[in-house]
Amino acid sequence: MTSIRLALVAILITLAGWINNANAAEIRVLSSNAMREVLTEAVPNFEKLSGHKVSMTFLGSVDILNRLRSGNENSDLIFLQVSSIEELMTEGIIAKNSRIDIARSLVGAAVRAGATRPDISSGDALKRTLLNTKSIVVSSGPSGTYMLGLFQRMGIPRDQYTQAKPGVQTGTLVARGEADLCFQQVSELLPVKGIDLLGALPADVGHVTVFASGLNSNSLNPQASRDFVQYLTSPAVTPILKAKGMEPAK
Description:
The protein is of the alpha/beta class.
């Protein structure tokens, strides 16, 4: 308990420093949709405590990479899966050694609300479900990349599944009746109306994606951005992460 109290004291001291910061800044965030729910809920309290303002843009991972590589993006802070952050650091778009891991996310499955809930309790059960499902859709992001590889390993016929266009929520397609079963990060499926979440993939075929932040090499507000990341990795945000289908990265 003593260590927990000390950690909380350290956080309070840091927050007090933010409150007294006369150089409040606007932090421009560019994030993948997987982090949307967490950031949307965490930002108001951070703004109140720090005096900084956070403006957020959410896009699919592919669109974010394209924007950053175009050279016309002026965001301060980027949130993407770890492998993409590392790639962008190598390219010099994200500042070297600025990666901070924020959250762990699992791939989930969902069907239309009220539909029969298929069995995905094990790898074998999932394979049977996939083979008996006419229309399956996966995301254009990291979860979709993983699922396409899994389908190939399981021998699922190619005409049974499609990949959504960048930025399109697979849950929305299922809710509209355009697919029978979808796969995406649990954090992206939870807020979608009109679907029933089946849960995360079973452990024997499950997949964890780590989402991280990276500082844009062109950031105009690097210190304020670091303050925001420090807040996101504090215990204060852990309940938000869990409520939104994620876990702290560490």
